[in-house]
Amino acid sequence: MIMQRVKPLSRILAEGSDESHGLKRSLGPWALTAMGIGAIIGTGIFVLTGVASATRAGPALTLSFVVAGIVSALAALCYAEVSSKIPISGSAYTYTYATLGEVLAWIVGWALVLEYALGAATVSVGWSGYFTFILHTLHIWDVPQTWQHSHWDATPGIANLPAAAIIFLITALLVRGTKESGTVNAVIVGIKVAVVLFFIAVGIGHINPANYHLPAGPQAGEGGYFPFGWAGVFAGAAFIFFAYIGFDAVSTTAEEAKNPSRDLPFGIIASLVICTVLYIVVVAILNGLVPFYTLNVNFPVAYAVDSVGLAWAGVIISFGAIAGLTTVLLVMMYGQTRIFYAMSRDGLIPPVFVRLHSSWRTPWISQIIFGVLIAAAGALFPISILGSLTNMGTLSAFILVAFAVPMLRNRHPELKGAFTIPFGPYIIPVLTMITALGLIYFLRYGNPVVWGFFPLVWLGFVIWFVVGLIFYFAYGRNKSTVALEHTEGLAVRQPPVN
Asked: Which of 46, 140, 232, 404 has its CA 20 to 30 A from that of 68?
């Protein structure tokens, strides 16, 4: 029963081919790769690596990145196969609708809302930290602490206004159009990668090998390369998994890719491989420059080079971090509205989210609504909670996409894509589901608990899940185009886009 109301695949593909009333196809393989890199490299490498090293994994954080990278790579293979067969806007939501049915499609779409919206809010808080640090370091302006922090931060304030400001700026850029935002993204991605390579070049000569094997103590834990043991490695992987969020945003651009069956798998896999290599090298150097327990700061990369006497390099890296976080915001907020565009087109949410601007051909109303909500979240909530909930939404989507791979092969054996995962339809999808569930379990480490035992991040996700199901059964189940076709025998009408 739960897998009923599967949306006909022929209609899904037809919707994506309607270029006269749909989104403009303007993105090639390297533009998609740049978009993936822009989404992946950001908060994880510039902000969360310090906290993860200091509180969870120590120098063994390099292995945490390997673990998180393996989980992401497995999921990327599933995304690549399904996106090449179903090249349509909506990412995991659309894939699930075509294979697992409407209820599970709604669940995964709702989880993706959590991923992209709260992910963007998380990044905006990190962006604010680097921005205010640069203003202070260059003696330009000291933003009052009251307007740098939310009420629940360790340093309490009223609201994080710089975080809200950057969200509004990105919203205005995306309302204007895909081509313009894509051009800005490509330029900033180049700057960001150059800064990462710059850190590697200047930092590698200042590594102190002793920092990889510190003696045991109150700050260094058990000492050595594994100061928190293997549990710390996996807890670190669950925490910095946020660093890999973004490659799936490439699949949300299917209706704007020039050759989606070829370009989507290329963009997803290429961006993931490039970023994984950069992550491992950067983290190895970072933990070699200073003792890991000193990295519990919001600007660990700049802090590390500054600590070895390279203050000038810290300033350059700080500007690169700002660029990196900006591109992550760009792609996350871009992907968010494209998912709602697909859900609205299916009638599961009100038609206002599918309405395009008459000249710019962008979902401008949806972009503005979410811009306001994301800005409020970034201004009012702490980064730890936002980041953990983002990971929960992403990992849940990974599980359902992996489940969709064998279902799609069984139900549509005639469908051929440009990419097929190796080792058959079950091995990699099952591994994806198992490893994603493992990271969800380890998210409990370092998070507050309620009732003395239940992690707050799990509770927040359950509440979000229940709210989503209530909305679905109250509105979407009766309004969806598939519901009208199945229950009333009516001709399916798509919501008007103009």
From this structure: 404
